[in-house]
Amino acid sequence: MLNYYIKRTCLKTYYKKILTLLIMKGKLLFSLIFFILNLLHYTNTTAQLALDNIIEIDGVVMTADSLRAVPNATIQVKNKERGIESAYSGVFSIVCYKGDTLQFSCIGFRPKEYVVPKELNGQFFSLVQLMIQDTFYLPETIIRPLPSKEGFNYAFLHWRIPNDYYEVSRNNTNAMVLRALAYTLPHDGRESQAAYQQKLAKEAVYYGQQQPMNILNPIAWGQFFEAWKRGDFRRKDNQYISDY
After folding, report:
1. What is the three-state SS of 135-169?
2. CB neighbour class for 224 (10 Å; exposed up to 12, middle 13-18, buried from 19)
3. Bridge partners of residue 105, in order along the sequence
4. pLDDT tens per residue across span 1-29
5. Domain locations in the chain?
6. Which of 131, 147, 172, 209 is most buried as measured by Cβ atoms within 10 A of its Cβ?
7. Which class does domain 54-131 fall in?
8. What residues contact 86, with CB distance under 8 A and at least 6 apart?
9. What is the pTM of this model?
């Protein structure tokens, strides 16, 4: 009888320990699940706040006195290696965070800073930034005449004055230059594909039969003599001669 009570007491103690251990494991598992859920919620909240703080600013840079466009103005986010330049019409577009500071700078104008408000609603914002012209002084430049008439003649004959935009454009559209480029530059992918497709189409016309030969064709011989008389083959000797 005494042994029965001892065994019963030991079993109760054992069951209590097991129950306590299960409760502790359940609390640990519940705490782990709760921590993971909070972490996911914090991550989603942080990502949502980061997306909400991103803003795209579309604007134009203009002069304050005459409202003319300021081309090639530099717009940079302060303390960040990100920036752009305004177009010829002064238009620009940049992406930044709410609260960032935009720095505007251009040669001949005073630098300006604009702080993007944090309480803006939405992700798109329009801005017109006015720039004030600044007075700056260049170092003194002394222009002296050439020492002699011979020196002027030599300078007039041998000095190379750089071309302006109009002359550069005219040289780039010169017929002889374009013809030389056409003969020397390799074919691109589109031209190679077109030539290969033309070759396949020509071979498909005479598929299964012998292609005709124009060695005994009187019409082809007549065209050959006419081309010879016109001097077509003589012109092909120099492929860079312009017809204009």
Report:
1. CCCCCCCCCCCCCCHHHHHHHHHHCCCCCCHHHHH
2. middle
3. 74
4. 444 445 455 545 644 555 565 455 555 55
5. 54-131, 149-235
6. 131
7. mainly beta
8. 60, 61, 69, 70, 71, 72, 73, 75, 92
9. 0.41
